[in-house]
């Protein structure tokens, strides 16, 4: 079956999907995006994803390309045309097409909208989760507004490439104070010696992950203690467990950091339990 994309008002074959060379997303990475999981034919935490999209747009003073209700219709149509039962929906909005100039174009320039979908086999991620993943650490070189889900992802790309070159699944980013911020494409968590789940507090240095937000609710429901605060690498190395979260990874146990085993070197009890609870707690629409 041919893949279908939505590009600025038209449903087109994926191979024919194009944007203008003067689109500010191409010229300046002047745009934002969201990735939403599709599980058993339903969108996971759709409202929170689209609320975050609206936040990112507002912070960059980019107008909504279409009304929120219309975007929901487009997303579901792209899901249906691609017959995605398990996978991801990608929504990207840029400031639009205008002559190349760093200054914002006139308000009459309409933002660009692209929506695509991808089918995945959830069992592949489940197999990875049963084994656990390795991460490597690298300096956090990103800009200071990571809370905006911008398409300007070059530092993240370099970090993931570094991870791949070192046989790791993910890179954890470390700030100038030696504190872990988050992963290149995920939020970072540890379970310390006392059994407390620890993840960095919400600030401009991390993305307010939708999976992260849902997981905090699950942690409370499970009666686990949570601390939202900074943690350094030494605390991570001595943790009982570590894990990463994101829309494409859910809850993924981390069993090695920079080649050093975490805990027993195998997934501990907390991360798999939280992963198992995730889809039961998440809102599916």
Q: How would you sum up this structure, described in words?
A:
The protein contains 8 helices and 15 strands. It has helices spanning 24-28, 46-59, 68-82, 122-131, 154-165, 210-221, 233-237, 270-281; strands at 4-7, 10-13, 31-39, 42-43, 87-94, 112-119, 133-139, 170-174, 180-183, 187-191, 197-199, 226-228, 241-246, 250-257, 260-261. α6 crosses α8. The strands form 2 sheets. Strands 7, 8, 9, 10, 11, 12, 13, 14 and 15 form a 9-stranded mixed beta sheet that branches. It has a 6-stranded antiparallel beta sheet with strand order 2-1-6-5-3-4. It is of the alpha+beta class and 285 residues long.
Short recap of the structure:
The chain is α+β, with helices and mostly antiparallel strands. The chain has helices at 24-28, 46-59, 68-82, 122-131, 154-165, 210-221, 233-237, 270-281, and strands spanning 4-7, 10-13, 31-39, 42-43, 87-94, 112-119, 133-139, 170-174, 180-183, 187-191, 197-199, 226-228, 241-246, 250-257, 260-261.
